[in-house]
Design a protein that fits this description.
heterodimer; A: about 200 residues; mainly alpha; Four Helix Bundle (Hemerythrin (Met), subunit A); about 0% strand; B: about 650 residues; two-stranded antiparallel sheet; two-stranded antiparallel ribbon; globular; disordered N terminus; binds protoporphyrin IX containing FE; binds copper (II) ion; membrane (chain A); cytochrome-c oxidase activity (chain A); Cyt_c_oxidase-like_su3 (chain A); Cyt_c_oxidase_su3_a-hlx (chain A); Cytochrome c oxidase, subunit III (chain A)
Chain lengths: ~200, ~650
């Protein structure tokens, strides 16, 4: 074989925590797929609503704004400690990592509790009419994501508390963070669709 | 693994004789990339060649099953007023046939080829996420086995392969058949999406140094485009199939008009996937054809850039076509015109492909072997299918032939021409690489001849049947309908075609039982998979090759231009390169064999299947899956330092 075109990989970094890591791209791919899923759900919401004389249907109250808006703010706030945590670990700051993760989890749990209260008082169910079906499905799907996030992050923070991560071994935290921010950001168009669109249409 | 010398492998090129015995490094690599065998070992393997082969073999088995179903259908239709099948069985059989062919054969077969061939072609040792790869396979396997098991237990779906609502809602289709169908379709999407993300990342980040995007083999381009199409086409269907499952199990009202649902929503979601689906099947086939044409014409492709651009534009335009399946649903006229125009437009890039192949083949010293024959068969059949495609893209004509045998003829010309013939070409082309044995050329030629004649004999008359008004999906017809002769001809053709398939299946089986005899590069191909042994060793390449041109092995006489050193042979290390120019910039350490992906797939299956019976299975499934994923991703070096894991 031709010696001039040899390339030595011995000194290349082994665990980069950025766009050089295939895992980073894998998460971007997952986010792309999920974005298409969420976009389809929103499109279906409009498609179901478009031919209806009233949306939400007569007899169903336009959704209230206070609790969901509060929940949205709480969820958005959870991105901050997450950011603090993953910035922290790339500098080797264990405290930021440990407490950042726990704080994010706490905020996400609060969001879920608010959603639970809100939906348990809802006057309609998924089997009431198509509006109920799509609203419950969107909420259910997103909440499932939040639950998955929480479970995932519990594991990551368990690893953080036993001191597994370091500035050289931070890929899992960074990737978990990217996905966290995605689940937070994707909530915003869902929130706008579920809570603002019916008001604008009325 | 044995080291083989030149003598026991006829026709070996020089490069093989330079490797008389396995080097120390090769031995260590072999240990590192080893997968356990045996029954338990089977559930732990993750290497891309193993998973790719499984996809190919499994999907071929589904192809045979679906073929048997087709023969049963044709047997029933051979003579008028036949009572070989009951109407119910007929409905179940065409549903299973269509669903199996589209979801369990065509897509997984293309994925399998991609998973097997792409990493070799781009010169890497494995895919970016080997365990995810295995997970995708198990999800697919469970889906297929469950759907068939349910079918044999009397819960076969019978709503056709596109399961139109409201027919498929519980009011009109009670029983579990469609519940299984909707759930298993969701599974297939999961499996396809997993493969898509994975192949995209592998192609983006693991190409051999020097293989910039504009030097990538056309097959890899085709796979990349296909995987992007999967990413955009499958999620909407997944949403649709989940909605259908919810309508059936927990009484939501997505599709039921009485509760404010929209039946057309299902059609949109289905065809937004369903049309690209045809191209998800076709585009990899185009890649196969390009590989075979280049190799057998023994010259570079004519118009590489035009080929790449046309494949990419097919990928885009395919998303603007779905409504042509819904011309008869009473959509607004403007929309219909738009979709007609788009449907005609897709003929342009397809034409570019065909002309570039012809220009490549023109005047070349062709080597006529079975893979090339299947490619020539593809040309003929696919062009005819494209022709009738342009016909049905026109609304008045479509309105006339919608739901008749004209359409059955059209889409079989497209699908068998555009997928089955290229897949058979690919089998003959890559079988030596995958299994280390050449397939028999005589058998190949017979198989091709029978398939080609049988296909045209069987399906060409269907055009005429359709024009005479014979509807699709009818289980029988009357004596005085005037359809008897052509129907019988169609049945005879189907049997001849099946015989051709059988010849290849038997040949493959017999070849597999023979002693390995395949040279490394039996066809003189230019891509990197031919630069390693047949079958490749566990680690694919002893040294990662370096590429200096578009025709990796033709630039300097059958060998890569150089090699990468410095990858640790004791760890599963692969080189990571930049997206555009494939400059090395990191090394990734891949995980090894494990049973967790299998357990995770079982957990997902438990959740989804349990849900058919009771919603409580949703949280149970979620939790089990979570446990599966934690086991799978649990770091190897908890407690150790980062250094230990890296150095
Ligand atoms: C052995 C060759 C084949 C034969 C003899 C065959 C025959 C048939 C027959 C008799 C039908 C039912 C037509 C009707 O009653 O409406 C049918 C439907 C269908 N076939 Fe095939 N077929 C073959 C191969 C394929 C392949 C390779 C594909 C796809 C990759 C395919 C996809 C379909 C689909 C999607 C349907 C529609 C099912 C439905 O109506 O729901 N077929 N085929
Ligand atoms: Cu179409």
């Amino acid at each position: 074989m031709n010696a001039e075109t040899r390339f030595d990989a011995g000194e290349l970094p082994r665990l980069p925590a950025d766009y050089r890591a295939p895992l980073w791209w894998g998460i971007v791919g997952l986010i792309l797929v999920e974005s298409v899923v969420f976009a389809t759900l929103i499109t279906s919401y409009f498609y179901l609503g478009i031919d209806q004389p009233e949306w939400p249907p007569a007899g169903t109250k336009t959704p209230d704004l206070v609790k969901p808006t509060l929940g949205t703010l709480v969820l958005m706030a959870s991105s901050l400690p997450m950011h603090w945590a993953d910035r922290g670990i790339t500098r080797g700051d264990q405290t930021a990592l440990r407490w950042g993760l726990l704080l994010s989890i706490a905020l996400a749990v609060t969001f879920l509790v608010l959603k639970y209260i809100e939906y348990s008082q809802m006057g309609y169910r998924w089997y009431t009419h198509s509006y109920g079906s799509i609203a419950w499905t969107i909420i259910g799907f997103h909440s499932t994501h939040v639950i998955a996030l929480i479970l995932k992050t519990v594991v990551v923070s368990a690893l953080a508390w036993i001191g597994y991560f370091s500035e050289r071994r931070s890929l899992a935290v960074v990737v978990n963070g990217i996905y966290w921010h995605f689940v937070v950001v994707v909530w915003i168009p869902l929130y706008a669709t579920l809570y603002w669109v019916p008001r604008i249409l009325k | 693994m044995t080291t083989r010398t030149e003598t026991d492998r006829p026709g070996v090129t020089e490069q093989a004789s330079e490797r008389p015995a396995m080097s120390r490094k090769a031995q260590e690599l072999d240990r590192t990339w080893y997968s356990a065998s045996g029954f338990v070992g089977w559930f732990t393997q993750v290497n891309h060649r193993i998973i790719g082969t499984r996809f190919i073999v499994t999907s071929f088995i589904f192809f045979l099953m679906a073929g048997i179903e087709a023969l049963l259908l044709r047997t029933q239709l051979a003579v008028p007023e036949n009572s070989f099948l009951t109407p119910d069985h007929f409905n179940q059989l065409f549903t299973m046939h269509g669903s199996s062919m589209m979801f369990f054969f065509a897509v997984p077969m293309m994925e399998g080829l991609g998973i097997y061939v792409v990493p070799l072609m781009i010169g890497t040792r494995d895919m970016a996420f080997p365990r995810l790869n295995a997970f995708g396979y198990y999800v697919y396997l469970i889906a297929g086995v469950t759907l068939y098991a349910a079918g044999f237990l009397g819960h076969a779906p019978d709503g056709g392969w596109f399961a139109y609502v409201p027919l498929t809602l519980p009011q009109y289709s009670p029983g579990l058949g469609l519940d299984f169908w909707a759930t298993m379709i969701t599974f297939i999407e999961i499996s396809a999406l997993v493969a898509a993300v994975e192949l995209i990342v592998t192609v983006f980040k693991q190409r051999a140094p020097g293989m910039s995007l504009n030097r990538m083999p056309l097959f890899v381009w085709a796979m990349l485009v296909t995987m992007f199409m999967i990413v955009f086409a499958m999620p909407p269907l997944m949403v649709g199939s989940v909605m259908l499952a919810l309508d059936r199990t927990v009484s939501t009202h997505f599709f039921m008009p009485s509760g404010g649902g929209e039946p057309l929503l299902w059609q949109h979601l289905f065809w937004f996937f369903g049309h690209p689906e045809v191209y998800i099947i076709l585009v990899p086939a185009l890649g196969v054809i390009s590989s075979i044409v280049v190799t057998f014409a023994r010259r570079p492709i004519f118009g590489y850039t035009a080929m790449v651009l046309s494949v990419v534009s097919i990928g885009f335009v395919a998303f603007g076509l779905w409504v042509h399946h819904m011309f008869t649903t009473g959509l607004p006229a403007l929309g219909v015109s738009f979709f007609t125009a788009a449907s005609v437009m897709i003929a342009v890039p397809s034409g570019v492909q065909i002309f570039c192949w012809i220009a490549t083949l023109w005047g070349a010293k062709l080597r006529i072997a079975t893979p090339l024959l299947f490619v020539l068969g593809f040309f003929f059949i696919f062009v005819l299918g494209g022709l009738t495609g342009v016909m049905v893209a026109s609304v008045p004509f479509d309105t006339q032939v919608h739901d008749t045998y004209f359409l059955v003829a059209h889409f079989h010309y497209v699908l068998i021409g555009g997928a089955v013939f290229p897949v058979f070409g690919a089998i003959y082309y890559w079988f030596p690489k995958i299994f280390g044995r050449m397939l028999n050329e005589t058998a190949g030629k017979w198989s091709f001849a029978l398939m080609f004649v049988g296909f045209n004999l069987g399906f060409f008359p269907m055009h005429q049947l359709g024009l005479q008004g014979m509807p699709r999906r009818v289980y029988t017809y009357l004596f005085d309908s005037g359809w008897f002769e052509l129907s019988l001809l169609a049945t005879i053709g189907a049997y001849v075609f099946a015989l051709g398939v059988l010849v290849t299946a038997v040949d493959a089986l017999l070849s597999f039982l023979r002693k390995p005899d395949a040279p490394d590069n039996p066809w003189g191909g230019d891509t990197l998979e031919w630069a390693t042994r047949s079958p490749p060793p566990n680690y694919n390449f002893e040294d990662i090759p370096v590429v200096r041109g578009r025709w990796a092995l033709w630039e300097r006489g059958d060998e890569p231009a150089g090699a990468v050193t410095g990858l640790h042979p004791g760890r599963r290390e692969v080189l990571v390169t930049t997206l555009l120019d494939a400059e090395p910039h990191a090394v990734a350490i891949l995980p090894g064999p494990t049973i967790w992906p299998f357990l995770a797939a079982v957990a997902v299956a438990a959740g989804f299947l349990g849900f058919i019976r009771h919603p409580i299975w949703f949280p149970i499934g979620l939790l089990l899956t979570f446990v599966g994923f934690v086991g799978w991703l649990w770091p190897r070096a908890v407690g150790g330092s980062a250094e230990e894991q890296v150095r």
